[in-house]
Amino acid sequence: MIPNRKEPSDVRIASYNIRKCLGLDRRRDPGRTLSVINGLDADIVVLQEADKRLGARPAALPHDMLEHETDFVPVHFARNDVSLGWHGNAILLRRGLVPTAIDHLDLPGTEPRGAVAVEIGDVRIVGVHLGLLRSDRRRQLARIADKFHDDRPTVILGDFNEWRARTGLEALDGRFRVHTPGRSFHAARPVAALDRIALSDGLELRDAGVEQARPARSASDHLPVWADIDVVRGGRLTSTSPAATSASATHRA
User: What single string gives the DSSP state of each residue in 79-130?
Assistant: First the structure.
């Protein structure tokens, strides 16, 4: 059971590696995945493995199900007509939150990886799924830290794929504080805190945790992590009418 937010003004962010909606029972069930996402009561949800790997990488979560069964709108990262995200990374925004800019970032490494970023008001959200090798992860985090080095309050969250508490995360030292909500992998018997949330100056962690309700324990091999944050340095999230869409965002090279 996820607790209520400590302050009504807190923003709830979440990260979830949905494994292409493939559950531990080997059934691909987007409806089950959406029930887990809806249960997080989040404003912003960062997803990993949101698209299938082969061919044109079609979305594992169908767009029409997101539209009709959730209160979320996907940020438009896809570079084709069938994917939900880019390199499997997607970000869902609660209706009424409007992105002002989006970004794609190619990451170095042994296998193709990328990060996605969205600016909402004064806050930047960066979604990541880092590589399997620590040497790759170090280079990838260094690339992300170098790209987003300004003073904008920034959250980096996702599947960091790092089994150690601090080793491998050194590139974020100085600007970011890395938080570990808890053990999120393997969902059947969580032993590793692979999913992390890093906050820059201007953001304060209020609460965080791992969702362990029954649907989450079977919907993927990862459990979702969540955090309630407060924008403490004069920042805000832009909110407009529910009719607004991600089409108004500025794409950055």
Answer: SSSS-SSBTTBEEEEETTB--SEEEEEEE-SSS-EEEEEEEETTEEEEEEE-
In terms of DSSP H, where are the helices of 163-253? 216-219
Instruction: Render pLDDT for 67-108 as a digit per residue (tens, 0 to 9).
Output: 999 999 999 999 999 999 999 999 999 999 999 999 999 999
Task: Report how far residue 185's alpha carbon sits from residue 53's, in angstroms, rounded to the nearest whole number.
Answer: 21
φ, ψ (nearest 5 deg) of residue 72: -115, 150
Nearest Cα neighbor of 75 from 29, 122, 115 is: 115
Domains and CATH numbers, the chain: 11-230 (3.60.10.10)
| Sheet with strand 44-48: strands edge to edge | 72-74, 90-94, 44-48, 11-17, 225-231, 203-210
Distance of alpha carbon 200 from alpha carbon 202, whole angstroms: 6
d(C-alpha 41, C-alpha 140), whole Å:
30
Task: Determine the Cα–Cα distance for residues 119 and 165; give it in Å rounded to an integer.
Answer: 28
